[in-house]
Amino acid sequence: MKESVGEKFVEHTKLKRGDTFPVGKRVPAFKVYASPLETVRLPSPKQKGGAGLWSVITARRSQAPEVGSNITISEVAQLLWAAQGITGQRPGGSNLPYRTVPSPSGAYPLEVYLVIRGVSDTFAGVYHYVVREHQLEQVRIGDVTKDLVGALLGDSGVETSAVAMIFTGVVERTVTAHSERGYRHLYLEAGYAAQNVLLAGTALGLSARAISTFFDDELSFLLGLQGNRELPLTVILIGR
Prior knowledge:
Blueprint: H1 5-12, E1 38-41, H2 53-59, H3 73-84, E2 86-88, E3 98-99, E4 110-116, E5 125-130, E6 135-141, H4 145-151, E7 163-170, H5 171-178, H6 182-203, E8 207-211, H7 216-223, E9 230-239
Antiparallel strand pairs: 1-6, 2-3, 4-5, 4-7, 5-6, 7-9, 8-9
Helix pairs in contact: 2-6, 3-6, 4-7, 5-6
């Protein structure tokens, strides 16, 4: 029987005795656009208080946002910080700060984009989250709802959401550190980050639903990604 693509992926990314990883090689873990259309300084995230963890885990449900839902820029800031925010500095003078999710070897291959439709005091468009500065940079202006609906196989939840948060993975960062095994880390880390966002949304009283089925090339085009160097991994629709 012909080996499936999934089986090939598992086989080619297995770790076997005798395998070695690249040593001392690292790709910068932060992406910044040279000439963004606009930048949005985000409010500082809350790092203490809030709802109890166990009650939030119990309450979490996949829920489609209501029609015409809007959220605040403060809520957006909190969700982005939960996704990839900086939580502290590593000892020994390292320039790799800790983030809200783990990443093997500190490769941090994830990037976060927002398709904003209904956020207070913020123009519609496509934005990239700048982790170091805790701010947004606009990379595409205007309402791209139609294109996003098409990329998500006609999902009607886009039209009732305030924001679509999209996680991508920069392949070079993780493969440089972990060879082919790094491809597995892309999807694992997207899962870690997505769960943080879903729990944070629940704690904020928002509705959120994760989507893993989409037309990859169409979503990449919408975000302006470069071929297979940066891959779309998962999408979360967020609203009230």
